[in-house]
Amino acid sequence: MMMVDPLAITLLLGLFVILIIIKFPIAFALAFSAFAAAAYKGISLGAITQKMVSGVDSFSLLAIPFFILAGEIMGAGGISDRLVKLADVFIGRMRGGLAMVNVLASMFFGGISGSCVADVSSLGPIEIDMMKKQGYDTDFSVCVTISSAAQGVLIPPSHNMIIYASAIGGLSVGKLFMAGLVPGVLLGFALMVLCFIISVKRGYPAGGRYTFKESLKIIADSLLGLFTVVLIIGGVFTGIVTANESSVLACLWAFIVALCFYRKITLKDCWPILKRTLGTLAMVMTLIAASSAFGYMMTVLRIPALITQGLLNLSHNRVVLLLLINFALLVLGCIMDMAPLILIAAPILVPVVTSPVVGMDPVQFGVVMLLNLSIGLLTPPVGTALFVGSSIGGIKIEQAAKAMVPFYITMVIVLMLLTFVPAFSMTIPNLMFGK
Known about the structure:
Elements (H helix, E strand, L loop, with lengths): L5 H16 L4 H16 L3 H12 L6 H14 L2 H13 L5 H17 L2 H18 L4 H12 L1 H4 L4 H10 L4 H30 L9 H27 L4 H19 L8 H31 L2 H12 L3 H18 L2 H16 L8 H15 L7 H10 L3 H7 L1 H16 L2 H11 L2
Helix pairs in contact: 1-2, 2-14, 3-14, 4-13, 4-14, 5-6, 5-12, 6-7, 6-8, 6-11, 7-8, 7-19, 8-19, 8-20, 10-17, 11-18, 11-21, 11-22, 12-13, 14-17, 15-17, 16-17, 16-18, 17-18, 18-21
């Protein structure tokens, strides 16, 4: 067994922290730290490069570009306003109905984009503007929009789930997808209850009513776009297609719907869509490659084993350990983005949660981790979704963060339920794939 080398560990982690503090790109900070630690330990830099290549050479990662592309096509293809109208048909007539429509529309769109920030960017301008025109406070409109977007991280397809499966290895992406379904709906329901309570307290208006004929027309107009979700969830649920195959089908169907039925895009629009997709994909894959090298050096230096042993020595109480892990993820989510945190923290924490002391299934922990980090996307100082939503609403970050307090509390309550009640996340995947 290799001896612990405190200097090498300090070099790896210290250099990474310093580079992040001076605003170095996270992917390059991960790679430089790994190369520096490897050079100090006398490990071939070629071996580190090979680890970077092997990190992205994974069959499960093939789904990521297609899901990103499907989300871009549907975002540009007129699906956003149709989803808002569809949600308005079902719950818009209630007190604070438009706020709940916002949540439900995010639930629909989250199942297509799989991204919190994509949801805010696509639906935010529509939803926030509509809420402000109906008399809702701007900060409340922004808070509803960004907090409901967190559902996109849980409801399949979520490319962050694919990243998590890749980070720990040997985990079924399909099982992760199914595990996020109920938690995503649970989060949406909790946020709608909160919206109703606040709307009643502040006297926000009820929405308009649609005639039966108008409702049928809106529902029919939305079904083609929503069938993308059916292809993904239904295909994986029934076992007809794998997660990778469903991503290709979703991408193809999204293109057909946007081009031939909704006619919101033309062939000329394909290049900008592909360009945005490639930009997002390049960032994701670079992060995965760099974190593979960083993770390899952490393993060589026995950092995951040391942290696991340290946590288990700190307490043998399951509840205390889970609360500590959740707290650590919430704090880290406030200062780092989701993808790199998944790639760094998952290999460290999974051995802890799967130990006999805690006994949590890695699939359940994946859902818990993603919700933790999605809350981080809504918190300063590095909350990407919070920044985007505040920019769209035209308010200061501080004002939005203050108004987010009841939403933070609601999301943390859901987080605790998912942490300590496995049935929420594990019932469907266990029925489908077995324990």
